[in-house]
Design brief:
This protein is an alpha/beta fold. The chain contains 16 helices and 8 strands. It starts with 8 loop residues before the first helix and ends with a helix. InterPro entries: Aldolase_TIM (IPR013785), DNA_rSAM_put (IPR023874), Endo/Exo/Phosphatase_dom_1 (IPR051675), rSAM (IPR007197), rSAM_sf (IPR058240), RuvA_2-like (IPR010994).
Length: 444
């Protein structure tokens, strides 16, 4: 294999941006890289500008592959070695020129760079390092960079690349080692987890270095993430969410991304092609559950079990948990702990915090909750104010479920000044840093 030089940059761009569309691990920066006046660009914690494709996938930043050449033959991948697809590769200088020109035109605020495996993991990582080194040192680019590390590359290359990137990710690919062995036999769980552990350990060491020496170089300041393909192998939601929880706890990941399996290849080991398309609803439920793990103090074992291994297609995971645990409801809003308020459907962590602060100054009632952003259309079945509910309801699972699913339900007359609408689980969350609620709704 060799780097393509016969194509124009525009032709390569068309091929390699299209080849990158299946990689969803692309999100706001979560880090700050201020310009020192000698270069171009900056990176704010408020995040990177986003746009979305028709199916809801994030396509922000300049999102490209260095190459779609690959020595591996993963059965689910459009760029696998055995596929007859048009191949292309950038040079490091082309990556730099594209990034700078897109940035100058205000099309992007950063770079998302991934790659197929050209010749070997080390050879590919050398090329990625050369591109990022030129971009940072020769082109003085100080904007956000997210790079994908190649499993199997040397520790030294992973470390050197981490000094240039804001975020680094290593794709887990599939939730279990069995699935990986079936569909990606050239990859192993060991080669994937080793760079994750290296990044985690080096980040901790870097924090100590920065505490001692303020000007010490920063290593992956925005943390690391990973991606799992959902639906290509028969794992249950319970297995997947347990894997995600373990990754957060053991490797300190910032995000786990879930990518609904898209049928781009024919193979006997892949699920049969259907007219239903990618399992996007399942992907969405996993993102909602992932949010509960990271911000709402839930554990995976509370959301699902071996007896009930998959999420409800009609109700979000938080509502589903509440309906299965009606014995703990209704919750008195003026006395309940912050942790318990987080478990009330219709209450987000922002509104729960507002409640905790406001009730120090006086007793709260339902009109007060509405002003705080509580989605009373959901919360009214699970909350009391001063010992009373908004209106009499049966604390029965079937009754509440029917009402939650009936978006046209009318409330009794006499509840003056109250208007309701059916919202998503996180609609009361307002991000001041540039990330809109719909980003959470679509991408967790």
């Amino acid at each position: 294999m060799r780097l393509q030089e016969s194509m124009t940059v525009y032709e390569k761009l068309n091929i390699l941006t299209d080849a990158a569309k299946y990689d969803v691990a692309c999100t706001s920066s979560g880090t700050e890289r201020k310009s020192d006046g000698t270069g171009i660009g900056s990176c704010q914690q408020s995040g990177i500008c986003h746009s979305f494709s028709a199916d809801g996938r994030c396509i922000s930043l300049l999102k490209i592959l260095f190459t779609n050449e690959c020595v591996y033959d993963c059965k689910y991948c459009i760029n696998r070695r055995s596929n007859d697809v048009k191949r292309a590769s950038f040079t490091p200088d082309e990556i730099c020129n594209l990034t700078m020109e897109f940035y100058r035109r205000n099309y992007i605020e950063g770079l998302f760079l991934s790659s197929g495996v050209l010749k070997s993991p080390d050879y590919t990582m050398e090329l990625l390092y050369a591109a990022l080194y030129k971009l940072r040192v020769e082109y003085h680019f100080q904007g956000y960079i997210h790079v994908k590390a190649i499993p199997g590359a040397s520790r030294e290359l992973v470390y050197r690349l981490g000094l240039l990137a804001d975020r680094m990710s290593v794709n887990l690919e599939l939730p279990t080692a069995e699935g990986l062995k079936l569909l990606a036999p050239h990859k192993t769980r060991k080669t994937i987890l080793e760079p994750m552990r290296l990044v985690q350990n080096r980040m901790e060491e870097n924090k100590q270095e920065i505490a001692l020496y303020r000007n010490a170089p920063r290593f992956v300041p925005a943390g690391q993430s990973t991606q799992m393909i959902i639906g290509a192998t028969p794992e249950t939601d319970y297995q997947i969410i347990n894997v995600a929880e373990a990754l957060y706890q053991k490797f300190g990941l910032k995000r786990v991304f879930y990518s609904a399996f898209i049928h781009v290849n024919e193979d006997k080991n892949l699920p049969a092609r259907t007219d239903e398309g990618p399992p996007l609803l399942r992907e969405h439920r996993l993102y909602q559950a992932d949010w509960l793990l990271r911000y709402y103090h839930f554990e995976a074992k509370e959301l699902l079990s071996e007896e009930n291994p998959n999420f409800n297609i009609l109700l979000d995971p938080k509502c589903n948990w509440a309906l299965r645990n009606l014995e703990v409801f209704p919750v008195e809003v003026n006395r309940a702990s912050y942790e318990m308020l987080l478990r009330v459907p219709g209450l987000g962590y922002k509104s729960a915090m507002r409640i905790v602060k406001a009730r120090r100054l006086g007793t709260l009632d339902f009109p007060d909750l509405k002003k705080m952003g509580v989605v009373l259309k959901r919360a009214m079945y699970f909350l009391t104010c001063n010992g009373r509910m908004l209106y009499p309801v049966k604390m029965e699972e079937d009754y509440i479920t029917r009402n939650l699913l009936n978006t046209k339900e009318r409330l009794p007359q006499g509840v003056a000044g109250m208007t309701y609408r059916q919202l998503s689980l996180f609609d009361d969350v307002k991000f001041g840093g540039g990330l809109h609620e719909k980003d959470v709704y679509l991408h967790g």
